[in-house]
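User: Could you check the structure of this?
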Amino acid sequence: MASAQKRPKRDENETIDGYIHMISPVKTSKNKNIKYFNAVMQEKLKFTDVVCFKPDLHCNFQDLEKKKSPVSLKNIQRVPSNRTSADFDIRVGFASELSTPVRALDFDFQPPPTLQTTTIKDIEQNLNAFQKATIAIKVIDIGPTESRTTRSGQVMDCKHIIVADSTSSISCCLWEAHFDSIKLAQSYKITNVAVRNFDNIKTLTTCPDAAFEATNDIGPIVESEKKPISVEKIIRIKSAACTAANKCSVCSKDVGNFNSELDTIKCQSCNMRQRTLDITKQYKCEVVAQVDNNNTKLIIPDLVLRGRPDLVLDPNQLETQLLNSVSLTVKLNIGCTHVLDITHIQN
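Assistant: Sure, the predicted structure tokens are below.
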């Protein structure tokens, strides 16, 4: 009987030489409030993910990538990869040092595979969910702005666009930070779009470090019927979990229960004091619904719930109402789990 595969152990205080690519913005961890950023290290025979806990090196990394200069990272650790159990990532800690290699490298600066342009057809056929790609496309449709609540509780705007190349077309979720980066009927090279897979339909979403480069017209695109951005579905709710949160007017995090007779309240997440009158109640329902004979998880956001005067805005009563309904007719973006509208409820 074969023994279970063990995860590799970390290797302490190693020095590696190579080139830096794909530097992310500086981020803050949710649990410990630690600042860090990600990158990719080009070694001689492979590309390796990097997580750097020295944010003061961020500008140095960006400069080295721009100049395509070789780097030497000292006192790094090889830690088990978060992606595959057999690989290592590079951890740059407070004791790590950045310098110029002692000897000239015997390999040249090359972009990682994710920076090499991928066709939409190749994405649809070969890439898995959460993999990243670089695409050269033309924007052929832009949907309306809609609000989404992220897992961290932050409310953000997004748009769904349809992009195409000579091989196919695909829906892409464009977040508000990138609204000004695109125009209809223009061609772009977009770096760091991530693949999503919902009901076996591949879509794309822009990542925080996505980059948009306007290009010359990419030429003929796929000749096919224009794909709709959204569709209507008749669904039956099988289970529901509805919640209500008191949203901070600054960071949109939940401030919890509070005494509404007080004039002000301080948010424990952003430490900002504000008027209690500015705190808004926000509802959300996560449901498992039968969609096209498949059980599918969907999210019904606050704006959609408030758009139905026949729904009672109370978590327990909402759950009961949804479960007692015979069916709901809902509007969904292609490949997405957020309900855009409830157009009919059959009781």
